[in-house]
Amino acid sequence: MDRRTFLTYNAAAAAVPLSSMALTGLADAASAAARPAPLDFKSNLPAAGSFPEKWICGSPSCMDNTDPPVQVHWYNPHTAILRQNKAYSYEAPFAPLYFGNDRVLLLDEGFVQLRNDWDLRGVVDQCIDDWCRRNGRDPASLELLVAFSHLHADHYAATNQFADRPNTRYMGLTHEEMVGFWGMTNFPEERVTLDLGGRDILIWGSPGHVVSEFAYYDSYTQILYTGDMFYRGRCYISFWQPWFDSMKRLIDFCDTHPVTHVMGCHVEISRDGQDYTYGMTYQPDEAPVEMTVQQLREAFAYAQTITEPGIYFTGTVFLCNQTRGTTTIDKNPYRYS
Question: Which residue in 148, 223, 259, 304 has the most C-beta neighbors within 10 A?
Answer without folding.
Answer: 148
